[in-house]
Amino acid sequence: MTKVLIVAEHAGGKLNPATAKCVSCASGIAGAEIDIAVLAADAAAVASQAASLQGVKRVLKVENAANAEPLAAVLAPQVAALAANYTHVFGPSTTFGKDLMPRVAALLGVSQLSDIMAVESATRFRRPVYAGNAIITVEAAADRQIVATVRVASFQAAATGGSAASEAASTGADLPTHTRFVSRSAAATGRPDLQTAARVVSGGRAVGSADNFKLIVSLADKLGAGVGASRAAVDAGYAPNDLQVGQTGKIIAPELYVAVGISGAIQHLTGIKDARTIVAINKDPEAPIFEVADIGLVGDLFTVLPELEKALG
Amino acid sequence: MSKILVGLKRVVDYNVRVRVKPDGTGVVTEGVKMSINPFDEIALEEALRIREKGGATEVIVVSIGPADTQQQLRTGLAMGADRAILVQTDAPIEPLAAARIFLKLAEKEAPQIVLLGKQGIDDDNNQTGQMLAALWQRPQATFASKVELDGAKVRVTREVDAGLETIEVDLPAVITTDLRLNEPRYVKLPDIMKAKKKPLDTIAVADLGVDAGSQFKTVKYEPPAARSKGVMVRDVAELVSALKQKGLIQ
């Protein structure tokens, strides 16, 4: 019997959409029974969102004041305790899941599979390596638990409308006090979240300054898009780190991706290759971004962007 | 004696365009430039800065891999590490096995900090630091963009999806580095000469008494699906009509 436990990611009483994508991934395993664990100080709101995801059987609420912030060292022993009844334990391949799941796997004494992009069977999965330059098929032993992170850009979110049972669970795990949350700074922009936005406009090194980056933001607002940046633009201080798209930043799959002044290093391309339509605007006709773009325009962004905004009305 | 253990992984250089072998058994590594994993170089730089500010007395670089990995360890010594340990093996090592090996070394060397890159740019696993912290039963501060030592504690700012998060952990602890923690120094020629005299110990994996076997089997390697070639437009008007044609704008 295949039983999958998915660790919910959430913040501020809201379930992160990455969790619904993990459900889709788990649903790809034939006959899988899927439960979601919500570890929180107060799990009610998140649990009811999780229970509405189609394909979910049960939602386990693990409430503890120590779970107020997502500290891997605190959450991992609880997840490892819950994992006893499951063949698979999945989390999203976000910074939350990447931090937590390897710690869970090590506590269970098993290797972990990172970034599942396709499910071939209960024990066989595909994942990218070398910044997406190679895709490997990995076979896990059937007699061991499989702990994995799910590459969220590879899966559609599971639909809502379900009504899973919700129940309180306790783990009896010993929680460490050696790790303490201090603070979090997140820019509240009111723009669509980069990882779930249907449209994204990104700026690269050619944007030239933090001030010029307003041009990118302005086009994004015109299109109702999220804002992204290349590593070069983030390193240069034009945009904050949480906007970085690529191998070591966010992997995204919007309907429309507009790359402005981005040359298209392989590390960036790996973050966008699941986008439905890629538009590239760059003044260098040899820029590698044009090799993956569906629509390319060679031109100076400082001329093109104002014109484009005007044309969009 | 306050020590920092730094992991240096030997990987295909950042600038190499990696290609899958035609028979699907791996990627082409023959004649390809190998380097220190960039995240690990950042880890070493951070360790050296901590030592230079008096926060540590010794920086030990560790690698797991074939005999040729000595090259990367020598580079680490030239950057300023005090000594090096090569855990030698020709077998592929999964992150759990790497974590078990690091645990043995952590038990032997008793470092205050183990600094590792957040991920190897070859396997892109992003696991070893977290696994080591679990096995060592110590804190982990992953994806660090700022590290501030404060006696028996360290305050780490982490790059997370939502922005920046700061946590405080008790030492000893495992820290994994993100890209913007620092900019690694360049190695100067005299340092390369000096590095040749620094101690580099080699241990066989078998002598550590850890289970370093693989739990996963890689069945095959494939190149990624290529995107179909797009169209080039000449101006903004053409761009707008192409977007309209695809139904992406009204």
Structural write-up:
The complex is a heterodimer of chains A (313) and B (250). Chain A is of the alpha/beta class. Chain A has 2 domains: 3-168, 3-Layer(aba) Sandwich (Rossmann fold); 199-311, 3-Layer(aba) Sandwich (Rossmann fold), CATH 3.40.50.1220. Chain A has helices at 17-27, 44-51, 72-82, 95-108, 213-223, 231-235, 266-269, 289-292, 301-311; strands at 3-7, 10-11, 14-15, 33-40, 56-63, 88-92, 112-116, 118-119, 124-129, 134-140, 146-150, 165-168, 179-185, 199-203, 226-229, 256-260, 277-282, 295-298. In chain A, the strands form 4 sheets. A 7-stranded parallel sheet of chain A has the order 7-11-6-1-4-5-12, with helices on both faces. A 5-stranded parallel sheet of chain A has the order 15-14-16-17-18. A 3-stranded antiparallel sheet of chain A has the order 8-9-10, with no helix packed on it. In chain A, a hairpin with a 4-residue loop joins strand 9 (124-129) and strand 10 (134-140). In chain A, helix 3 (72-82) crosses helix 4 (95-108) and helix 5 (213-223) packs parallel to helix 9. The longest helix of chain A is centred in the first third of the chain and has 14 residues, at 95-108. The model of chain A has no long low-confidence stretch (mean pLDDT 95). Chain B is of the alpha/beta class and 250 residues long. Chain B has a single domain (3-224), classed as HUPs (Rossmann fold), CATH 3.40.50. Chain B has 7 helices and 13 strands. In chain B, the strands form 2 sheets. Chain B has a 9-stranded mixed sheet with strand order 9-8-7-10-6-1-4-5-11, sandwiched between helices. In chain B, a hairpin with a 2-residue loop joins strand 7 and strand 8. Chain B is globular and about 70 Å long. The N and C termini of chain B lie far apart (67 Å). In chain B, 48% of the residues are buried. Classes of the chains: A alpha/beta (313), B alpha/beta (250). Chains A and B meet through helix 3, helix 4, strand 7, strand 9 and strand 10 of A and helix 3, helix 4, strand 7, strand 8 and strand 9 of B. Strand 13 (179-185) of chain A pairs antiparallel with strand 9 (163-170) of chain B.
